[in-house]
Specification:
alpha+beta; three-stranded antiparallel β-sheet; 8 helices
Length: 183
């Protein structure tokens, strides 16, 4: 990925390339890819993991995807691996290249609050469900107001979903401000 991103985006500074690479190879991205490829169906799991929904766990799926990529690396010529990984991750690279933190709504929301002199966003979490299938609900507040809600299989996913929801509600306000600032 590093080689591909470096060659594909020569105009980007190092400070932009590193977050782009991190976005593309993070555990969530690899787990999503594993789901798309239905890798969970091919996993051999112990009885405990099988019973606790291991075929759908993000950590197991991302590790399995890394293992598949590693196996191709060991068995195939470099060009085959490179083409395969680029094909699997092409759409995600394009989305992530639109700007650092494009999908990181928590950071965007934090920066928005800082720019507008508001207190940093506060996330309140609740959870439900058994340990093997836990669901989290996050509610984000800032400026004394609830701004968004989101759910996820991890606290981080729920907070990102809540921040994305808040960002969507801010979009009209941001567009109006940009229009007002235009000459």
């Amino acid at each position: 990925m590093t080689d591909h991103i470096y060659v594909a985006y020569p105009e980007m500074a190092e400070g932009q390339l590193a977050p782009l690479r991190a976005e593309v190879v993070r555990a969530e991205t690899l787990a999503d890819l594993a789901v798309e490829l239905q890798l969970g169906k091919a996993l051999r799991l112990g009885r405990g993991e099988e019973a606790s929904g291991g075929r759908e766990k993000q950590s197991i799926l991302s590790d399995a995807m890394e293992a598949v990529i590693g196996a191709v690396y060991l068995d195939a010529p470099w060009e085959v691996l490179s083409q395969l990984v680029r094909r699997w991750l092409a759409d995600r690279i394009v989305v992530a290249s639109e700007g650092p933190g494009v999908r990181d709504f928590k950071t965007r929301l934090q920066e928005y609050c800082a720019r507008h002199g508001q207190v940093a966003p506060e996330y309140r979490l609740t959870e439900k469900g058994p340990d093997h299938a836990k669901q989290f609900l996050a509610v984000v507040h800032f400026d004394g107001v609830e701004r968004g809600r989101g759910e996820g299989r991890s606290k981080k996913q729920a907070e990102q979903a809540a921040a994305a929801s808040a960002w969507e509600t801010l979009a009209p306000e941001l567009a109006a401000a940009a229009t007002a600032a235009a000459p």
